[in-house]
Design a protein that fits this description.
Number of strands: 12
Strand order of the largest sheet: 6-7-8-3-9-10
Helix content: 25-40%
Oligomer: single chain
Length: 338
Protein backbone atom coordinates (compact mmCIF):
# COMPACT_ATOMS: atom_id res chain seq x y z
CA UNK A 1 0.00 0.00 0.00
CA UNK A 2 1.31 3.39 -0.96
CA UNK A 3 1.57 5.66 2.06
CA UNK A 4 2.28 9.36 2.13
CA UNK A 5 5.33 9.56 4.34
CA UNK A 6 4.83 13.27 4.99
CA UNK A 7 1.30 12.69 6.25
CA UNK A 8 0.76 13.20 9.96
CA UNK A 9 0.53 9.85 11.81
CA UNK A 10 -2.90 8.59 12.80
CA UNK A 11 -1.39 7.01 15.92
CA UNK A 12 1.88 7.95 17.60
CA UNK A 13 3.21 6.01 20.58
CA UNK A 14 6.33 7.30 22.29
CA UNK A 15 8.25 5.58 25.11
CA UNK A 16 5.17 3.68 26.31
CA UNK A 17 5.63 1.91 29.65
CA UNK A 18 3.37 -0.42 31.63
CA UNK A 19 4.89 -1.88 34.80
CA UNK A 20 3.26 -4.24 37.30
CA UNK A 21 4.37 -4.31 40.93
CA UNK A 22 5.53 -7.53 42.60
CA UNK A 23 4.58 -7.82 46.26
CA UNK A 24 5.09 -10.32 49.05
CA UNK A 25 3.96 -10.84 52.62
CA UNK A 26 0.79 -9.97 54.48
CA UNK A 27 1.42 -6.25 54.06
CA UNK A 28 2.09 -6.74 50.33
CA UNK A 29 5.46 -5.04 50.42
CA UNK A 30 6.67 -4.14 46.95
CA UNK A 31 9.78 -6.13 46.12
CA UNK A 32 10.12 -5.42 42.42
CA UNK A 33 8.22 -4.99 39.20
CA UNK A 34 7.54 -6.68 35.87
CA UNK A 35 8.14 -4.31 32.96
CA UNK A 36 5.46 -5.70 30.67
CA UNK A 37 5.93 -2.79 28.27
CA UNK A 38 9.16 -0.85 28.62
CA UNK A 39 9.77 2.03 26.23
CA UNK A 40 7.79 1.01 23.14
CA UNK A 41 7.64 3.61 20.36
CA UNK A 42 6.06 3.43 16.90
CA UNK A 43 3.85 5.36 14.48
CA UNK A 44 0.88 4.32 12.36
CA UNK A 45 -0.20 6.22 9.25
CA UNK A 46 -3.68 6.16 7.75
CA UNK A 47 -4.34 3.08 5.66
CA UNK A 48 -1.27 1.26 7.01
CA UNK A 49 -1.04 -2.09 8.76
CA UNK A 50 1.67 -2.34 11.42
CA UNK A 51 2.32 -5.90 12.52
CA UNK A 52 3.54 -6.60 16.03
CA UNK A 53 4.96 -10.08 16.52
CA UNK A 54 6.58 -11.75 19.50
CA UNK A 55 6.52 -14.72 21.83
CA UNK A 56 3.74 -15.17 24.37
CA UNK A 57 4.20 -12.83 27.33
CA UNK A 58 6.41 -10.30 25.50
CA UNK A 59 3.92 -7.44 25.99
CA UNK A 60 2.04 -7.32 22.67
CA UNK A 61 -1.49 -7.44 24.09
CA UNK A 62 -0.58 -5.15 26.98
CA UNK A 63 0.66 -2.63 24.41
CA UNK A 64 -2.68 -2.87 22.59
CA UNK A 65 -4.69 -2.38 25.78
CA UNK A 66 -2.51 0.57 26.76
CA UNK A 67 -3.05 2.23 23.37
CA UNK A 68 -6.80 1.88 23.91
CA UNK A 69 -6.39 3.24 27.45
CA UNK A 70 -7.90 0.04 28.83
CA UNK A 71 -4.70 -0.53 30.84
CA UNK A 72 -3.24 2.07 33.22
CA UNK A 73 0.04 3.54 31.96
CA UNK A 74 3.28 3.89 33.90
CA UNK A 75 4.70 6.39 31.43
CA UNK A 76 4.89 7.48 27.82
CA UNK A 77 2.83 9.40 25.30
CA UNK A 78 -0.07 8.34 23.07
CA UNK A 79 -1.33 10.64 20.33
CA UNK A 80 -4.37 9.66 18.28
CA UNK A 81 -5.60 11.71 15.33
CA UNK A 82 -3.32 14.55 16.46
CA UNK A 83 -4.63 14.64 20.04
CA UNK A 84 -2.82 13.62 23.21
CA UNK A 85 -5.00 10.96 24.87
CA UNK A 86 -2.44 9.83 27.45
CA UNK A 87 -4.11 11.45 30.46
CA UNK A 88 -7.73 11.70 29.39
CA UNK A 89 -10.35 10.77 31.99
CA UNK A 90 -12.73 7.86 31.24
CA UNK A 91 -15.60 10.17 30.24
CA UNK A 92 -13.21 12.05 27.93
CA UNK A 93 -12.13 8.78 26.29
CA UNK A 94 -15.70 7.86 25.36
CA UNK A 95 -15.84 9.81 22.05
CA UNK A 96 -12.27 8.76 21.24
CA UNK A 97 -13.21 5.08 21.48
CA UNK A 98 -15.71 5.54 18.68
CA UNK A 99 -12.66 6.00 16.43
CA UNK A 100 -10.59 3.07 17.76
CA UNK A 101 -11.94 -0.45 18.14
CA UNK A 102 -10.57 -3.92 18.86
CA UNK A 103 -10.97 -7.44 17.47
CA UNK A 104 -10.16 -9.98 20.17
CA UNK A 105 -8.26 -13.26 20.07
CA UNK A 106 -11.02 -15.57 21.30
CA UNK A 107 -13.99 -15.33 18.92
CA UNK A 108 -16.30 -17.12 21.38
CA UNK A 109 -15.17 -15.62 24.68
CA UNK A 110 -15.53 -12.08 23.29
CA UNK A 111 -19.23 -12.60 22.47
CA UNK A 112 -21.99 -12.66 25.07
CA UNK A 113 -23.58 -16.14 24.79
CA UNK A 114 -26.93 -14.82 26.04
CA UNK A 115 -27.28 -12.18 23.34
CA UNK A 116 -28.47 -12.58 19.76
CA UNK A 117 -26.02 -11.58 17.05
CA UNK A 118 -28.19 -8.60 16.14
CA UNK A 119 -27.81 -7.24 19.68
CA UNK A 120 -24.06 -8.01 19.87
CA UNK A 121 -23.27 -6.14 16.65
CA UNK A 122 -25.63 -3.30 17.50
CA UNK A 123 -24.53 -2.81 21.11
CA UNK A 124 -21.86 -0.16 20.27
CA UNK A 125 -24.54 1.86 18.46
CA UNK A 126 -26.76 1.75 21.56
CA UNK A 127 -23.92 2.60 23.95
CA UNK A 128 -22.94 5.67 21.93
CA UNK A 129 -26.51 6.79 21.33
CA UNK A 130 -26.49 6.22 17.58
CA UNK A 131 -29.51 3.88 17.42
CA UNK A 132 -32.25 6.49 17.33
CA UNK A 133 -34.43 4.76 14.74
CA UNK A 134 -35.38 1.07 14.90
CA UNK A 135 -35.60 0.66 11.12
CA UNK A 136 -32.23 2.33 10.49
CA UNK A 137 -30.74 0.29 13.33
CA UNK A 138 -31.81 -2.99 11.71
CA UNK A 139 -30.62 -1.82 8.30
CA UNK A 140 -27.21 -0.98 9.75
CA UNK A 141 -26.94 -4.44 11.35
CA UNK A 142 -27.85 -6.09 8.05
CA UNK A 143 -25.27 -3.94 6.25
CA UNK A 144 -22.51 -4.85 8.71
CA UNK A 145 -23.29 -8.57 8.47
CA UNK A 146 -23.20 -8.39 4.68
CA UNK A 147 -19.83 -6.57 4.82
CA UNK A 148 -18.23 -9.47 6.71
CA UNK A 149 -19.81 -12.22 4.62
CA UNK A 150 -22.72 -13.25 6.85
CA UNK A 151 -26.36 -13.52 5.82
CA UNK A 152 -28.58 -10.90 7.47
CA UNK A 153 -31.20 -13.55 8.35
CA UNK A 154 -28.66 -15.08 10.75
CA UNK A 155 -28.97 -12.07 13.06
CA UNK A 156 -31.47 -13.74 15.40
CA UNK A 157 -29.08 -16.62 16.21
CA UNK A 158 -26.80 -16.99 19.22
CA UNK A 159 -22.96 -17.30 19.21
CA UNK A 160 -22.94 -21.07 19.87
CA UNK A 161 -24.76 -21.60 16.57
CA UNK A 162 -21.80 -20.32 14.57
CA UNK A 163 -18.38 -21.74 13.68
CA UNK A 164 -15.16 -20.17 14.95
CA UNK A 165 -14.54 -18.28 11.71
CA UNK A 166 -18.12 -16.97 11.64
CA UNK A 167 -17.82 -15.80 15.25
CA UNK A 168 -14.70 -13.85 14.38
CA UNK A 169 -16.58 -12.25 11.49
CA UNK A 170 -19.23 -11.19 14.01
CA UNK A 171 -16.47 -9.63 16.15
CA UNK A 172 -15.18 -7.76 13.10
CA UNK A 173 -18.70 -6.51 12.28
CA UNK A 174 -19.08 -5.22 15.84
CA UNK A 175 -15.73 -3.39 15.55
CA UNK A 176 -16.90 -1.75 12.28
CA UNK A 177 -20.24 -0.58 13.70
CA UNK A 178 -18.99 2.86 14.80
CA UNK A 179 -16.94 3.46 11.61
CA UNK A 180 -13.55 3.62 13.37
CA UNK A 181 -10.33 4.82 11.75
CA UNK A 182 -8.13 2.42 13.76
CA UNK A 183 -8.79 -1.25 14.52
CA UNK A 184 -6.47 -3.18 16.82
CA UNK A 185 -6.46 -6.88 15.95
CA UNK A 186 -5.16 -8.88 18.92
CA UNK A 187 -4.22 -12.28 17.46
CA UNK A 188 -7.56 -12.49 15.58
CA UNK A 189 -6.73 -15.72 13.72
CA UNK A 190 -4.61 -17.67 16.23
CA UNK A 191 -7.62 -19.73 17.41
CA UNK A 192 -8.75 -20.61 13.87
CA UNK A 193 -7.88 -23.38 11.42
CA UNK A 194 -5.31 -22.50 8.77
CA UNK A 195 -7.85 -22.37 5.92
CA UNK A 196 -10.17 -20.14 7.98
CA UNK A 197 -7.20 -17.93 8.93
CA UNK A 198 -6.65 -17.11 5.27
CA UNK A 199 -10.32 -16.21 4.80
CA UNK A 200 -10.35 -13.86 7.80
CA UNK A 201 -7.06 -12.23 6.77
CA UNK A 202 -8.35 -11.65 3.24
CA UNK A 203 -11.56 -10.19 4.68
CA UNK A 204 -9.56 -7.74 6.81
CA UNK A 205 -7.49 -6.71 3.80
CA UNK A 206 -10.62 -6.22 1.63
CA UNK A 207 -12.25 -4.09 4.35
CA UNK A 208 -9.09 -2.01 4.61
CA UNK A 209 -9.15 -1.25 0.90
CA UNK A 210 -12.88 -0.45 0.88
CA UNK A 211 -13.06 1.61 4.09
CA UNK A 212 -9.53 3.02 4.39
CA UNK A 213 -8.95 1.33 7.74
CA UNK A 214 -5.71 1.36 9.72
CA UNK A 215 -4.67 -1.81 11.58
CA UNK A 216 -2.39 -2.56 14.49
CA UNK A 217 -2.12 -6.31 13.92
CA UNK A 218 -0.78 -8.46 16.74
CA UNK A 219 0.27 -12.10 16.33
CA UNK A 220 2.93 -14.60 17.33
CA UNK A 221 3.12 -16.16 13.86
CA UNK A 222 5.52 -14.22 11.64
CA UNK A 223 4.11 -15.74 8.44
CA UNK A 224 0.61 -14.44 9.29
CA UNK A 225 1.94 -10.96 10.09
CA UNK A 226 3.93 -10.84 6.84
CA UNK A 227 0.79 -11.63 4.84
CA UNK A 228 -1.15 -8.57 6.00
CA UNK A 229 1.39 -6.00 7.26
CA UNK A 230 3.17 -3.09 5.59
CA UNK A 231 5.74 -2.90 8.41
CA UNK A 232 6.61 -5.42 11.11
CA UNK A 233 7.96 -4.91 14.61
CA UNK A 234 9.37 -7.72 16.75
CA UNK A 235 8.84 -7.51 20.53
CA UNK A 236 10.89 -9.18 23.23
CA UNK A 237 10.62 -8.60 26.99
CA UNK A 238 8.44 -5.52 26.63
CA UNK A 239 10.50 -3.78 23.94
CA UNK A 240 10.46 -3.53 20.17
CA UNK A 241 13.78 -5.10 19.27
CA UNK A 242 13.62 -4.93 15.47
CA UNK A 243 11.40 -3.23 12.91
CA UNK A 244 11.36 -3.23 9.10
CA UNK A 245 9.13 -3.48 6.04
CA UNK A 246 7.65 -6.91 5.41
CA UNK A 247 9.77 -7.41 2.28
CA UNK A 248 13.09 -6.61 3.97
CA UNK A 249 15.24 -9.69 4.50
CA UNK A 250 16.02 -8.85 8.09
CA UNK A 251 12.42 -9.63 9.09
CA UNK A 252 11.58 -12.24 6.49
CA UNK A 253 14.68 -14.41 6.74
CA UNK A 254 16.09 -16.10 9.80
CA UNK A 255 19.52 -16.14 8.18
CA UNK A 256 19.53 -12.41 7.37
CA UNK A 257 18.29 -11.20 10.72
CA UNK A 258 21.11 -10.57 13.17
CA UNK A 259 18.76 -10.41 16.14
CA UNK A 260 18.20 -13.80 17.78
CA UNK A 261 14.49 -13.41 18.55
CA UNK A 262 13.67 -12.43 14.96
CA UNK A 263 15.79 -15.26 13.63
CA UNK A 264 13.86 -17.67 15.84
CA UNK A 265 10.51 -16.49 14.54
CA UNK A 266 11.78 -16.64 10.96
CA UNK A 267 12.70 -20.30 11.43
CA UNK A 268 9.60 -21.29 13.35
CA UNK A 269 7.22 -19.76 10.79
CA UNK A 270 8.46 -22.01 8.01
CA UNK A 271 6.39 -25.03 6.97
CA UNK A 272 7.72 -28.32 8.27
CA UNK A 273 9.71 -26.94 11.18
CA UNK A 274 10.49 -29.37 13.94
CA UNK A 275 13.01 -29.73 16.74
CA UNK A 276 15.50 -27.62 14.78
CA UNK A 277 13.10 -24.73 14.24
CA UNK A 278 15.35 -22.36 16.19
CA UNK A 279 18.62 -23.62 14.77
CA UNK A 280 19.25 -20.20 13.24
CA UNK A 281 19.02 -18.70 16.71
CA UNK A 282 20.41 -21.45 18.92
CA UNK A 283 22.26 -18.80 20.94
CA UNK A 284 18.90 -17.27 21.96
CA UNK A 285 18.51 -17.77 25.70
CA UNK A 286 15.19 -16.92 27.30
CA UNK A 287 15.28 -14.39 30.13
CA UNK A 288 12.98 -13.95 33.11
CA UNK A 289 10.83 -10.80 32.68
CA UNK A 290 11.48 -9.88 36.34
CA UNK A 291 15.21 -9.76 35.65
CA UNK A 292 15.84 -8.51 32.08
CA UNK A 293 19.41 -8.01 30.81
CA UNK A 294 20.96 -4.57 31.06
CA UNK A 295 22.03 -2.58 28.02
CA UNK A 296 20.77 -3.58 24.59
CA UNK A 297 17.72 -5.88 24.89
CA UNK A 298 18.79 -9.53 24.67
CA UNK A 299 22.44 -8.45 24.78
CA UNK A 300 23.28 -11.44 26.95
CA UNK A 301 22.51 -13.74 24.00
CA UNK A 302 23.85 -11.72 21.08
CA UNK A 303 26.60 -13.45 19.11
CA UNK A 304 30.25 -12.71 19.77
CA UNK A 305 31.33 -9.45 18.17
CA UNK A 306 28.28 -7.40 19.18
CA UNK A 307 29.51 -6.42 22.61
CA UNK A 308 27.36 -5.44 25.56
CA UNK A 309 26.43 -1.82 26.02
CA UNK A 310 26.35 -0.90 29.72
CA UNK A 311 23.70 1.16 31.45
CA UNK A 312 21.11 0.76 28.71
CA UNK A 313 22.71 3.50 26.60
CA UNK A 314 23.79 2.55 23.09
CA UNK A 315 26.22 4.38 20.83
CA UNK A 316 24.28 4.56 17.58
CA UNK A 317 24.50 5.70 13.99
CA UNK A 318 22.00 5.58 11.13
CA UNK A 319 22.95 3.70 7.99
CA UNK A 320 20.67 3.18 4.99
CA UNK A 321 17.64 4.04 7.05
CA UNK A 322 18.41 1.45 9.74
CA UNK A 323 19.65 2.01 13.27
CA UNK A 324 23.06 0.42 13.81
CA UNK A 325 25.09 -0.20 16.96
CA UNK A 326 28.53 1.43 16.86
CA UNK A 327 30.99 -0.97 18.41
CA UNK A 328 34.65 -0.05 18.03
CA UNK A 329 36.64 -2.76 16.28
CA UNK A 330 33.72 -5.15 16.20
CA UNK A 331 31.05 -6.22 13.76
CA UNK A 332 28.16 -3.76 13.94
CA UNK A 333 24.69 -5.22 14.45
CA UNK A 334 21.21 -3.90 13.83
CA UNK A 335 19.96 -2.31 16.97
CA UNK A 336 16.91 -3.28 17.80
CA UNK A 337 15.47 -0.45 19.83
CA UNK A 338 13.46 1.87 17.58
Amino acid sequence: MNLAMNEKPLLKVNDLKVHFSLTEGFLEKEVGSVKAVDGVSFELRRGETFGLVGESGCGKSTTALAVLRMQPLTGGLIEFEGNDITRLEPHQMRPVRRRMQMVYQDPFGSLNPRMQIRDIIGEPLLVHGLATNRRLFRERIDELMDMVGLLPDMSDRYPHEFSGGQRQRIGIARALALEPSLIICDEPVSALDVSIQAQVLNLLMDLQRELGLTYLFIAHDLSVVRHISDRIGVMYLGRIVEIAGRDERTICSSEASLYPSTAGFGSASRPGFGSNAFSAADRWRSTEPQNPPSGVPLSSSLPKGYGRLPGGVANLRVESGRIIVKSSGRIPGRLPSI
